[in-house]
Amino acid sequence: MADSGSTVTPPSDAVTVPLTPPVADWSTDYDIFDAEYITDPYPIWADMRDECPVAHTDRWGGSFLPTRYEDVVAMARLVPVLSSRDPIVVRPPESQQVLGGGGYHTVNAPPISADPPVHTWSRRLILPAFSPHAVEEHATYTRTLARRLVEGFVADRRVDGAQQYAQQIPPRVIAHLLGVDEGRADEFTDWVRGVLEIGLSNPAVRAASREKIFNFFRGEVADRRANPKDDLISDLMSAEIDGEPVSDEHIVGTCNLMLVAGIDTTWSSIGSALWHLASHPDDRRRLAEDPGLIPNAVEEFLRAYSPVTMARVVSEDTEYNGCPMHVGDKVLLNFPAANRDPEMFEDPDVVDIDRLRNRHIAFGVGIHRCAGSNLARMEMVVALEEFLARIPDFRLEDPSAVTWAGGQVRGPRRLPLEF
Ligand code: HEM
What's the gap in Å between 372 CA and the centre of ligand 1? Predict the structure, then answer.
């Protein structure tokens, strides 16, 4: 029997975001940092879909929020009218905006921050590093890491599944892939949370964290100019586009993206999957007894607990289904809500690990579709396989102690488990 995804709901104060005034009307005043929105957004999206499928708010710099699958897909394809020049869901202060052709830019993170034509070649540059074959080469490393982590806490009969397990895997895998010091994984984690989580409501933290990431990769690139290595950063440095080398600052921006895109997203997904299994014993038992079911379950976890919402900036005045949008307005591509749309998915709020028709867009859709999806899937599958192999029976130690982050990337940040 499949369980409902909303039968176990954490308390509304269990979030790691600032308190904001209560929402008066979700269609005209939504708040992506509202505690209720972060812990249990599904009923809110269901109401929005019925009442106002493209909602608007003035909060956090103002934005539009589509909740229907069809609209999210259509808007993701409106390139470059909806531009990727600022893909972060909260507009930064003017001091962090760089004025350029057609509006402001905030972040150098190609291809995610670029529109065509730069997007096209900057994406082509990184795709080989994420092919199924390339990813397979990181699977053994990931498995050994996951096994070592589990061995480190299995005797304690309790663990924080978010902090001691989910959060430990992606920063090391990305460091391993890029060829940088895995021993600095905790720093990478702090920097990425500074950009995508804490920094969303604290521009000073966001700027400082970004500065640390850029300085780190500037150092790594300079180091390789002097001593080339056999790793991804060196490969990017020796690549050519139309016979021309790629600038160091472009490579630094792309490395910044890989760190930021590859860490918070994947650990949030591993954490949400563990949260689901800890609170849905039938699913946990089935996956522990038959690990062959894990890849299909992972697709369902990605659909039902999609972590990522991305932003676009309107680059020319336009209208979407009668809704006027003006230059500079933000649109939040709500992939998580699209994946709960009943027009697209049968019983969308039922988390069914056997679901077969599952064309979810947790990895986005269109030209910016996640370049790292093979890697993310591998990490999720290996992380769950190794956890369940040693700890087939586990549960939430105290459901009220679970905390969630949200906004750009949603997932558990404290997840005490006992076994
Ligand atoms: C479960 C984990 C992950 C999820 C849910 C996820 C989700 C997404 C989404 C929704 C996008 C589309 C962005 C947009 O439309 O603006 C995206 C893009 C991207 N992701 Fe992921 N991602 C995950 C893991 C990873 C990993 C491990 C990497 C590896 C570094 C990665 C690298 C990228 C890159 C490079 C892009 C930009 C592609 C482009 O702009 O052409 N992601 N991801």
Answer: 6
DSSP structure string for 242-302: TTEEPPHHHHHHHHHHHHHHHHHHHHHHHHHHHHHHHH-HHHHHHHHH-GGGHHHHHHHHH
Query: Would you state the pLDDT for residue 3?
Result: 36
* Distance from the alpha carbon of residue 22 to the mean position of ligand 1, in angstroms: 32
Q: Is 90 exceeded by the pLDDT of residue 341?
A: yes
The answer as to whether 285 is a domain residue is yes
Residue 16 covered by a domain? no
How remote is the CA of residue 394 from the centroid of ligand 1, in Å? 30
23 DSSP 8-state letter: P
* The pLDDT of residue 6: 33
Instruction: Find the domain containing 292 and state its range.
Output: 3-8+21-418
Return all residues near 175 (Cβ < 8 A) that are at least 6 apart: 181, 182, 184, 185, 188
Q: State the chain's mean pLDDT as an integer.
A: 92
Residues with Cβ within 6 A of ligand 1? 76, 84, 87, 111-112, 123, 126, 257-258, 261-262, 265-266, 269, 307-308, 310, 333, 335, 362-364, 368, 370-372, 375-376
Q: How many structural domains comprise the chain?
A: 1
Residue 413 is assigned to a structural domain of this protein: yes
Give residue-wise pLDDT tens across range 13-58. 444 556 678 898 999 999 999 989 999 999 999 999 999 999 999 9
> Atom 34 of ligand 1 has which residue's CA nearest to it?
371
- pTM of the predicted structure, to 2 decimals: 0.94
For residue 257, the ligand 1 atom closest to its alpha carbon is 35
CATH number at residue 402: 1.10.630.10
- Domain for residue 60, yes or no? yes
Whose C-alpha lies nearest to ligand 1, atom 7?
Answer: 363
